[in-house]
Task: structure prediction
Amino acid sequence: MSKLAVFDFDSTLMDGETIEIIASCIGLQKEVACITKRAMEGELDFFDSLTYRVSLLKGIKEEKVNEICANLPYMTGAKETISELRKRGFKVVCFSGGFKNATAYAKNILEYDADFSNILHTKDGILTGQVGGEMMFSDSKGQMLKKLQSLLGITPQETITIGDGANDLSMFKYAAVRVAFCAKECLKKEATICLEQKDLRLLLDKLPAF
Result:
Protein backbone atom coordinates (compact mmCIF):
# COMPACT_ATOMS: atom_id res chain seq x y z
CA MET A 1 0.00 0.00 0.00
CA SER A 2 1.32 3.43 -0.93
CA LYS A 3 1.55 6.08 1.76
CA LEU A 4 2.49 9.74 1.63
CA ALA A 5 4.41 11.96 4.08
CA VAL A 6 4.56 15.70 3.35
CA PHE A 7 7.01 17.91 5.22
CA ASP A 8 7.23 21.66 5.36
CA PHE A 9 10.82 22.88 4.87
CA ASP A 10 11.57 26.04 6.86
CA SER A 11 11.58 25.42 10.63
CA THR A 12 10.60 21.80 9.97
CA LEU A 13 13.18 20.01 7.81
CA MET A 14 15.49 23.01 8.17
CA ASP A 15 16.26 24.66 11.50
CA GLY A 16 15.40 28.25 10.63
CA GLU A 17 13.81 30.39 7.93
CA THR A 18 15.67 30.53 4.61
CA ILE A 19 14.41 34.00 3.72
CA GLU A 20 15.59 35.41 7.04
CA ILE A 21 19.06 33.92 6.59
CA ILE A 22 19.27 35.40 3.08
CA ALA A 23 18.06 38.78 4.37
CA SER A 24 20.75 38.78 7.05
CA CYS A 25 23.41 39.34 4.37
CA ILE A 26 21.92 42.79 3.68
CA GLY A 27 21.08 43.65 7.28
CA LEU A 28 17.32 43.08 7.00
CA GLN A 29 16.94 39.90 9.01
CA LYS A 30 14.97 41.50 11.86
CA GLU A 31 12.47 43.18 9.53
CA VAL A 32 11.93 40.02 7.49
CA ALA A 33 11.72 37.86 10.64
CA CYS A 34 8.96 40.06 12.08
CA ILE A 35 6.86 39.67 8.92
CA THR A 36 7.57 35.93 8.72
CA LYS A 37 6.44 35.43 12.32
CA ARG A 38 3.15 37.23 11.73
CA ALA A 39 2.53 35.30 8.51
CA MET A 40 3.21 31.94 10.19
CA GLU A 41 0.83 32.85 13.01
CA GLY A 42 -1.87 33.56 10.43
CA GLU A 43 -2.01 37.31 11.06
CA LEU A 44 -0.95 38.27 7.52
CA ASP A 45 -1.99 37.02 4.08
CA PHE A 46 0.72 34.61 2.96
CA PHE A 47 0.95 35.88 -0.63
CA ASP A 48 1.22 39.51 0.45
CA SER A 49 3.83 38.75 3.08
CA LEU A 50 5.89 36.56 0.73
CA THR A 51 5.97 39.03 -2.14
CA TYR A 52 6.84 41.90 0.19
CA ARG A 53 9.65 40.00 1.91
CA VAL A 54 11.12 38.89 -1.42
CA SER A 55 10.99 42.48 -2.70
CA LEU A 56 13.42 43.37 0.09
CA LEU A 57 15.96 40.90 -1.36
CA LYS A 58 16.28 42.80 -4.63
CA GLY A 59 19.89 43.26 -5.67
CA ILE A 60 21.38 40.22 -3.93
CA LYS A 61 23.54 38.04 -6.16
CA GLU A 62 22.00 34.66 -7.03
CA GLU A 63 25.42 33.13 -6.37
CA LYS A 64 25.25 34.38 -2.78
CA VAL A 65 21.74 32.94 -2.35
CA ASN A 66 22.91 29.55 -3.60
CA GLU A 67 25.90 29.64 -1.27
CA ILE A 68 23.59 30.33 1.68
CA CYS A 69 21.19 27.58 0.64
CA ALA A 70 24.05 25.09 0.40
CA ASN A 71 24.94 25.73 4.04
CA LEU A 72 21.56 25.70 5.80
CA PRO A 73 21.30 23.88 9.14
CA TYR A 74 18.98 20.89 8.80
CA MET A 75 16.73 19.90 11.65
CA THR A 76 18.01 17.27 14.05
CA GLY A 77 16.81 13.87 12.88
CA ALA A 78 15.56 15.04 9.49
CA LYS A 79 17.62 12.67 7.36
CA GLU A 80 17.10 9.68 9.67
CA THR A 81 13.34 10.25 9.87
CA ILE A 82 12.93 10.53 6.11
CA SER A 83 15.01 7.38 5.62
CA GLU A 84 12.88 5.43 8.09
CA LEU A 85 9.60 6.65 6.59
CA ARG A 86 10.75 5.52 3.16
CA LYS A 87 11.62 2.11 4.61
CA ARG A 88 8.06 1.97 5.96
CA GLY A 89 6.69 2.49 2.46
CA PHE A 90 6.08 6.23 2.42
CA LYS A 91 6.67 8.55 -0.47
CA VAL A 92 8.26 11.59 1.18
CA VAL A 93 7.69 15.04 -0.29
CA CYS A 94 8.68 18.57 0.72
CA PHE A 95 6.26 21.50 0.30
CA SER A 96 7.80 24.91 0.92
CA GLY A 97 6.61 28.49 0.74
CA GLY A 98 10.34 29.16 0.48
CA PHE A 99 12.63 28.67 -2.45
CA LYS A 100 13.82 26.05 -4.91
CA ASN A 101 17.42 27.13 -4.28
CA ALA A 102 17.08 25.56 -0.83
CA THR A 103 14.68 22.65 -1.34
CA ALA A 104 16.32 21.26 -4.48
CA TYR A 105 19.74 21.31 -2.83
CA ALA A 106 18.40 19.69 0.34
CA LYS A 107 16.66 16.95 -1.65
CA ASN A 108 20.04 15.42 -2.50
CA ILE A 109 21.09 15.47 1.15
CA LEU A 110 17.88 14.56 3.00
CA GLU A 111 16.76 12.23 0.18
CA TYR A 112 13.07 13.02 -0.03
CA ASP A 113 11.32 12.02 -3.24
CA ALA A 114 10.21 15.42 -4.56
CA ASP A 115 10.06 19.10 -3.66
CA PHE A 116 7.54 21.81 -4.50
CA SER A 117 8.50 25.41 -3.74
CA ASN A 118 8.91 28.89 -5.22
CA ILE A 119 11.47 30.43 -7.56
CA LEU A 120 13.32 33.67 -6.95
CA HIS A 121 13.36 35.60 -10.22
CA THR A 122 16.78 36.74 -11.38
CA LYS A 123 18.19 38.86 -14.17
CA ASP A 124 21.88 38.77 -15.05
CA GLY A 125 22.52 36.76 -11.90
CA ILE A 126 20.88 39.30 -9.58
CA LEU A 127 17.61 38.93 -7.66
CA THR A 128 14.93 41.21 -9.08
CA GLY A 129 12.77 41.14 -5.97
CA GLN A 130 10.09 39.08 -7.69
CA VAL A 131 8.97 35.53 -7.00
CA GLY A 132 6.68 32.92 -8.54
CA GLY A 133 6.00 29.22 -8.24
CA GLU A 134 3.94 26.42 -6.81
CA MET A 135 3.57 27.57 -3.20
CA MET A 136 2.59 31.24 -3.41
CA PHE A 137 -0.72 31.24 -1.55
CA SER A 138 -2.12 30.20 1.82
CA ASP A 139 -3.99 27.27 0.24
CA SER A 140 -1.20 26.16 -2.13
CA LYS A 141 -0.04 23.24 -0.01
CA GLY A 142 -3.55 21.84 0.31
CA GLN A 143 -4.21 22.15 -3.41
CA MET A 144 -0.91 20.45 -4.27
CA LEU A 145 -1.54 17.67 -1.76
CA LYS A 146 -4.92 16.92 -3.34
CA LYS A 147 -3.26 16.68 -6.76
CA LEU A 148 -0.56 14.33 -5.49
CA GLN A 149 -3.09 12.11 -3.74
CA SER A 150 -5.08 11.87 -6.95
CA LEU A 151 -2.02 11.10 -9.08
CA LEU A 152 -0.62 8.51 -6.67
CA GLY A 153 -3.94 6.96 -5.69
CA ILE A 154 -3.38 7.78 -2.02
CA THR A 155 -6.17 8.70 0.39
CA PRO A 156 -6.11 11.18 3.30
CA GLN A 157 -6.14 8.15 5.61
CA GLU A 158 -2.78 7.13 4.10
CA THR A 159 -1.28 10.63 4.41
CA ILE A 160 0.72 12.39 7.12
CA THR A 161 1.61 16.08 7.07
CA ILE A 162 4.25 17.82 9.19
CA GLY A 163 4.62 21.59 9.55
CA ASP A 164 4.93 24.55 11.88
CA GLY A 165 2.95 27.53 10.55
CA ALA A 166 -0.36 28.87 9.26
CA ASN A 167 0.40 28.10 5.63
CA ASP A 168 0.51 24.40 6.57
CA LEU A 169 -3.14 24.46 7.65
CA SER A 170 -4.39 23.88 4.11
CA MET A 171 -2.54 20.57 3.79
CA PHE A 172 -3.69 19.46 7.25
CA LYS A 173 -7.22 19.29 5.83
CA TYR A 174 -6.27 16.35 3.62
CA ALA A 175 -4.33 14.18 6.07
CA ALA A 176 -5.46 11.82 8.80
CA VAL A 177 -2.22 12.38 10.72
CA ARG A 178 -1.39 16.07 11.21
CA VAL A 179 1.85 16.84 13.00
CA ALA A 180 2.53 20.26 14.52
CA PHE A 181 6.29 20.50 14.91
CA CYS A 182 7.43 23.20 17.36
CA ALA A 183 4.48 24.98 15.82
CA LYS A 184 2.44 28.15 16.05
CA GLU A 185 -0.75 27.90 18.12
CA CYS A 186 -3.02 28.09 15.06
CA LEU A 187 -1.52 24.83 13.76
CA LYS A 188 -1.47 23.02 17.09
CA LYS A 189 -5.24 23.42 17.30
CA GLU A 190 -5.70 21.33 14.15
CA ALA A 191 -2.99 18.74 14.85
CA THR A 192 -3.35 15.11 15.89
CA ILE A 193 0.27 15.04 17.10
CA CYS A 194 2.22 17.92 18.67
CA LEU A 195 5.99 17.72 18.99
CA GLU A 196 7.69 20.39 21.11
CA GLN A 197 11.34 19.34 20.81
CA LYS A 198 13.54 20.07 17.80
CA ASP A 199 14.13 16.42 16.91
CA LEU A 200 12.14 14.91 14.05
CA ARG A 201 13.03 11.39 15.15
CA LEU A 202 10.42 11.79 17.90
CA LEU A 203 7.80 11.59 15.16
CA LEU A 204 8.60 7.95 14.46
CA ASP A 205 7.47 6.82 17.92
CA LYS A 206 4.25 8.85 17.71
CA LEU A 207 2.96 7.60 14.37
CA PRO A 208 -0.03 5.26 14.45
CA ALA A 209 0.12 1.99 12.54
CA PHE A 210 -0.72 2.39 8.85
Remarks:
- The chain has one domain: 3-206.
